[in-house]
Amino acid sequence: MKKTLVAAAAISLSTFALSSCGSSSGADSGSDSNDGTITMGFAQVGAESGWRTANTKSIQDTAKAEGVDLKFTDAQGKQENQIQAIRSYIQQKVDVIAFSPVVETGFDAVLQEAKAANIPVILTDRAVDADPSLYKTFLGSDFVVEGEKAGDWLVENAKDADVDGDGTVNVVQLEGTTGAAPAIDRAEGFAEKIKADDSIEITASQTGDFTRDGGKQVMESFLQSDDSIDVVFAHNDDMGLGAIEAIEAAGLEPGKDIKIITIDAVKDGMQALADGKINYIVECNPLLGPQLMDLAKKVLDGEEVPARVLTDETAFTQEDAKAALPDRQY
Ligand code: AHR
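Predict the joint structure of the above. Result:
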């Protein structure tokens, strides 16, 4: 197994958050471990949603439990921060770099630099649009399938979703971060499936950046310009929860006057589903820590790993949510 070397340069990363847990003293000093400890640099998207918080916890907890020296960076939703963090991990000569790309494009140069430095890269959660030889594997959900599940549910429940009974199901879409894989793929999967029913139409679509505030603000503006909204399709629970606030503030009942479909299935979302304010949630599993550490060990041991590792996921109705809530981990 590859060992960690001492980083030559002290790297200043004052513009965004960086921390280290495990055996070494911190990112600035690099690791001086020569005992077989794996040092992983992880460049996280940020803390934009409940899903992301659960994902970060899973990675940090698993690293700690398995004795992996984790250098963790929160890029605060900015691609330039993430690229800067990856460059710092290359300079520190970590054993392996993992990251969840903020957006799909623009990582080619830094991935080339990692490859030239002989540091393997593992993508988690989100894909990049780059030469696949620049990374070892991609661990995460199939976002197109998630969008398809949401679309299938709407097609099956179209009659019920036509709340005003005018023969048209008017859908507004709260998109994730523009250019991010889950925003692109969920929109694609959903659009493909709703083609099966001509009465379903997406009347407006705008980014809420995967945040609760973003979802609330966009929903407020949708409600001001359109009084015939039947359905909200939110690309994550947080934006759906923001939309609920906007719908209630407008004097309407979420889940009844306007149906809501979301993706993630974090506890707050599941509670709103059980309470009848959301109608359907497609699960996106954030607990990627164990699989990530396992893949990292295999890659560093020179074992072959699959190019794509999918996570197991399901979907929840309101009744399912009531049953699942007591055991929900996140
Ligand atoms: O990439 C996964 C997505 O990112 C989650 O669905 C969303 O909540 C998060 O911000």
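Residues 1-16, 21-32 have pLDDT under 50 and may be disordered.
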